[in-house]
Design a protein that fits this description.
alpha+beta
Amino acid sequence: MSEQKQINFTIVPDEDSVGPQRIYANFCAIAHTPFDFTLTFCDVTPLSQRDIRNAETEHIVRAPVKARIVAPVPLIPNLIAALQEHFRLYSEAYGGGGPQGPVH
């Protein structure tokens, strides 16, 4: 029989492999299947008068997709826990829970 080894390691982002890339998004739509969660990040800019008129009739505002991330279900609980912990630290450092708005 072969002997199994356990190796402990830490995964860190390798900024040199792709180059630093930052994408701004102020809206996130979330969907899921039995196998994964899809987070679609968009940038919603201030609406023009034309956009407002269209939204009044169509009840839709289109926002450009900046990134779409598909994550397997087992990753989601750790993602939620990490976001909660970082938001707790943010709230302690800067006070309050940040602006409240609709959850999408």
